[in-house]
């Protein structure tokens, strides 16, 4: 699977879910209502989005960045979510699959096919290219996601099917690995890391796909705590794909494509609520893959198979009683 393109790998995972059966919500569970504030479904040329991938919201510029892997570009959206620019080959970047913007406004774009990190200035001038190399096992390491520590400048890179995160210093020199691990009968067991996030204090959040949990480390790589319960039911994580931290509202959001949901936790990892469910109407998801939060605390979700991005406001004081697995519309 590692030699496949980004979209083909996602399709393979999705088909596996179909064959195994997507978990459904149990009758009578309570979820949180969401208000749909907007839906993004066009690129900078006015054409329909085609399977949007990773997203990043920069709170300084108040801009949203959406990766469209099939077209090898990153689309820039204004604070009111109007598409105005795309970055790709014309900027010296080949086949981007993920993007991160650091505190100085530099852009870090990962290319799986090239096994490189392209670093662009805030003026979109290519500053340097960092090969994802220099560590044991780098020959078959296919980079998928990137994050930059705002305190130390350390760069974190996940790899397709890998049970660790590769760490580089700000100059691109390999420094160490970070692992999510648990003990089973005194034997250490690892999990594929599907994504990585950071907060303003430099804490690092590793999304452990197999464990259905998120592992949190401090800026020095010391393990702090983990959260999330593995499972296919309400309030559990089946195969989480992304994490984002809303420090202003003291919430952590985790995206779970297999459960078609986004789950919310407090800053200590205590479960608060979830929203979503499989569907095609606004407020529903069809394989959500990434999540971000904007300046207003609204949640932005990549709705991959619906080929759109949704901007949603969870309303914790408005629980919805689910009586069927496929209600017509949960959004207001």
From TrEMBL:
<keyword id="KW-0677">Repeat</keyword>
<dbReference type="GO" id="GO:0000209">
    <property type="term" value="P:protein polyubiquitination"/>
</dbReference>
<dbReference type="InterPro" id="IPR011042">
    <property type="entry name" value="6-blade_b-propeller_TolB-like"/>
</dbReference>
<feature type="repeat" description="NHL">
    <location>
        <begin position="272"/>
        <end position="315"/>
    </location>
</feature>
<protein>
    <recommendedName>
        <fullName>6-bladed beta-propeller</fullName>
    </recommendedName>
</protein>
<dbReference type="InterPro" id="IPR001258">
    <property type="entry name" value="NHL_repeat"/>
</dbReference>
<dbReference type="GO" id="GO:0043161">
    <property type="term" value="P:proteasome-mediated ubiquitin-dependent protein catabolic process"/>
</dbReference>
<dbReference type="GO" id="GO:0008270">
    <property type="term" value="F:zinc ion binding"/>
</dbReference>
<dbReference type="GO" id="GO:0061630">
    <property type="term" value="F:ubiquitin protein ligase activity"/>
</dbReference>
<dbReference type="InterPro" id="IPR050952">
    <property type="entry name" value="TRIM-NHL_E3_ligases"/>
</dbReference>
<dbReference type="Pfam" id="PF01436">
    <property type="entry name" value="NHL"/>
</dbReference>
<feature type="repeat" description="NHL">
    <location>
        <begin position="224"/>
        <end position="268"/>
    </location>
</feature>
<dbReference type="Pfam" id="PF17170">
    <property type="entry name" value="DUF5128"/>
</dbReference>
């Amino acid at each position: 699977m590692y030699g496949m393109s980004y979209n083909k790998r996602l399709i393979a995972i999705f088909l596996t879910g179909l064959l195994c059966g997507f978990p459904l919500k149990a009758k009578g569970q309570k979820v949180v209502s969401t208000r749909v504030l907007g839906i993004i479904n066009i690129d900078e040329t006015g054409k329909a989005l085609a399977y949007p991938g990773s997203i990043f919201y920069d709170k300084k510029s108040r801009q949203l960045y959406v990766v469209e892997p099939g077209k090898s570009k990153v689309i820039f959206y204004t604070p009111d979510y109007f598409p105005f620019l795309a970055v790709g080959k014309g900027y010296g970047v080949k086949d981007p699959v993920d993007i991160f913007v650091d505190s100085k406004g530099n852009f870090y774009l990962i290319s799986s096919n090239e096994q490189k990190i392209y670093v662009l200035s805030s003026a979109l001038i290519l500053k340097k290219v960092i090969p994802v190399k220099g560590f044991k096992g780098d020959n078959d390491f296919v980079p998928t996601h990137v994050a930059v520590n705002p305190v130390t400048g350390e760069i974190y890179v996940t790899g397709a099917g890998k049970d660790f995160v590769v760490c580089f210093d700000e100059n691109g020199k390999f420094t160490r690995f970070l692992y999510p691990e648990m003990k089973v009968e005194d034997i250490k067991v690892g999990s594929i890391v599907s994504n990585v996030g950071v907060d303003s204090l430099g804490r690092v959040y590793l999304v452990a796909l197999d464990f259905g949990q998120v592992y949190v480390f401090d800026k020095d790589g010391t393990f702090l705590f983990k959260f999330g319960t593995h499972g296919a039911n309400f309030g559990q994580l089946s195969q989480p794909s992304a994490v984002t931290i809303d420090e202003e509202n003291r919430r952590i959001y985790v995206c779970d494509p297999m459960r078609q949901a986004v789950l919310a936790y407090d800053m200590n990892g205590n479960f608060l609520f979830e929203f979503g469910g499989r569907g095609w109407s606004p407020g529903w998801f069809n394989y959500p893959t990434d999540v971000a939060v904007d300046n207003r605390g609204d949640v932005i979700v990549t709705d991959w198979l619906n080929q759109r991005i949704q901007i949603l406001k969870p309303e914790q004081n408005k629980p919805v009683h689910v009586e069927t697995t496929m209600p017509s519309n949960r959004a207001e």
